[in-house]
Amino acid sequence: MTNKYYMPTRVIMGKDCITENSELLRALGKKALIVTGAQSAKRNGSERDVKTALESVGIPYLVFDKVMSNPTISCVYEGASLAKENGVDFIIAIGGGSPMDAGKAIALLAVQAIEEESLFSGHYENKVLPMAFVPTTAGTGSEVTQYSILTNDKAQTKTSIASDLLFPTVTFLDAKYTEHLGVITTINTAIDALSHAVEGMLSVRASMVSNALAVSCIQMFMNCVPDMLQALQSGSEVFDLQQREQLLQASLMAGMVIAQTGTTAVHAMGYSLTYFKNIDHGRANGLLLGEYLKLVERVQPDLTARILAAMNFSRAEQFQKLVNKLLGAKEKISSAEIEQYCKLASQTKNIGNSVVKPTEEDLRTMFTQSFAN
Amino acid sequence: MTNKYYMPTRVIMGKDCITENSELLRALGKKALIVTGAQSAKRNGSERDVKTALESVGIPYLVFDKVMSNPTISCVYEGASLAKENGVDFIIAIGGGSPMDAGKAIALLAVQAIEEESLFSGHYENKVLPMAFVPTTAGTGSEVTQYSILTNDKAQTKTSIASDLLFPTVTFLDAKYTEHLGVITTINTAIDALSHAVEGMLSVRASMVSNALAVSCIQMFMNCVPDMLQALQSGSEVFDLQQREQLLQASLMAGMVIAQTGTTAVHAMGYSLTYFKNIDHGRANGLLLGEYLKLVERVQPDLTARILAAMNFSRAEQFQKLVNKLLGAKEKISSAEIEQYCKLASQTKNIGNSVVKPTEEDLRTMFTQSFAN
Prior knowledge:
The first copy, chain A, is of the alpha/beta class. Chain A is built from 16 helices and eight strands.
């Protein structure tokens, strides 16, 4: 089987890396559209730093700060209209996965007339606006992937645009923007990154390179677990900047992994939990990951052994117990909901991407067990 | 400190990946120049596969098969003239480090008039011919780096052209081309890759991403050591295709590492051994690596501990003993040679790139000890 590695985004990492590398923005064009959410980029200082960097190289900009959590299709068309009307040359997305995923779609739609029906086709002309990304959470990995995940009300799920055109041109990673994230958001996003790393190793497209990155990501997550548990117990923030950097790097590596491997049954199932039950994306993956790892363990114990070794565990159940501790009290799920979500999950491409492909019965069992405490 | 990750080459891996992905060549242009050495690409089947792939998509080609080991500056100017005279659109380099490094310089010189005096300046116009690379040894990593290392008679050493322009567009990794490499070449090239990984972790530019790749590379090298030792003892080939793939992937990852970190004092010293004493490049690094690791161990034991842990060693001396076993009887070196090489090494940029910067006295001791049996 032919395998591949491709991730052409230039990643710049370190404190104040945006303002210290503003000349990289100059190379992207003469006018920028900042794509972000309503609040966090203003609070954590990232929007200020981006504006300072743009001003220092004399680039005018507009701000589109209407991106909501789990961005909708209409949101990205609105952003693209703004980009076109104002003749911007490039996009700067700031935020968690939502503004970055929206930013990618906007960069595409700003230069191509794509009808909503064809948005997820994967067939586009070979043009897109250059993009600079500034992640302010440590989980999505969107800053180094070719995916834009949008809420698709017609399909009642989240659907991804996947195209090499969507790799950002440059990404700036500065952990200081993640310092003010609350404990729950920190844990949920870290679990999202963990899920990317683990699912990458469970993907039919896993390679030695993606596995190398995934194992490191898992180890870095585990390094931060004691402080996550302590933070949950004390209810207060205990992560120092070095740990924030570790989580941000883990998220970066996990993004580099799924750029190669895609995601698996876990994401396939998790999307329904987010779409219908409004469960945070990282949390949704975390709720399901242990149960899926147990399924894989029964069929391919060598595969799970490699993943568990990176955690110093020997059984998938130990992993599940740890994640359950991090997730706390679980939501309720009804049989009717499970039936509906199984149908939707079984139709996704992510299932086919899994080394161990769950049957509909497997999906039902996993949903049920994942919510049993 | 600002850190970076950038490696935009598309890597395609697997058996028959060239002939199965010939459409990727079509995207590079209408006429190709194959750059290779006189013999090995013909013997191992790689040149045949490249020609088959080109013919299947109707791309005419010329062959420049005059690249020698440690290619000279005049060789790359000759190749570039041929490329210009024949109006080729892209370069396909096949072979070990020498044809690939030559291929990069030819791709640059074919579209830019650069005088020999300015060849290593790092300042070029923003244009280069697209490149497709086919490594047929597992060591150099040139297929995923921005470096072209040429023999520089004026400076009496090997000198590198370093530019992001030199990242190949696409690289095809098929381990079958490495199956017929002899035991000594297999070991020397594997040690070259190992040296890249270890030096990457000893570089001031090491990052979490480069360390993740380096650790995996070191582990993969160690997996293959028992069979290397057995092959040396029996004098016959004992590597199966799976091990060849592991060595090729280790070399790829080590290349991705030095694309971020550059190399250190070891390469700085090794270049003289190759230039003046004609010691194979990988072997030269191997001769010096243990002694440098011992120097670092004295100053920064935490740093070497991380490297040694990936080998299941606790002391740099254990590592040195293992490499010495792989290298066998050593060459002789005179005090006059050592004096000369110390001077040359201390002038290189690689020394400044090392976390632990050896003094000239350190260099003298390392050269002496490395050749003491």
